[in-house]
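Go through this one:
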Amino acid sequence: MSLESQLNTDLKTAMKAHDKLSLNVIRMMKAALTNEKVKQGHDLTADEELTVVSRELKQRKESLAEFQKGGRQDLVDGVEAEIKIVEAYAPKQLSADEITQIVKDSIAKVNASGMGDFGKVMGAVMPQVKGKADGNLVNQTVKAQLNQ
């Protein structure tokens, strides 16, 4: 089932359950997908849909961090609930150990010897973890492995 049809099904379920939060988040996701579809000028591939979901998730996580810094617990609670809903549409996230293994394999593959090869390693790692791992965590893992 495509992401769009899954969102449509969940939208109907949320409407019937009078779940306003889910309804709003699903509508925002559908709008983001539609905007991307118009921008690209064609139906989205699964990879492009994944990019949109990742972008939506990242935006909410950034908002969460800002609200926490500002001490706005009322807004933090709402954004945390939204994140849980959006995460249901994102692929399962890789564990830190899985990311470390991918980074080690990529370092060996590109024959990286130090921080000068950071770009090469990131270029090899990111396509493998796209949408399945936080970019900041991948960045930190690559740096840690290259500094060893």
The first helix runs from residue 3 to 17. The mean pLDDT is 86.
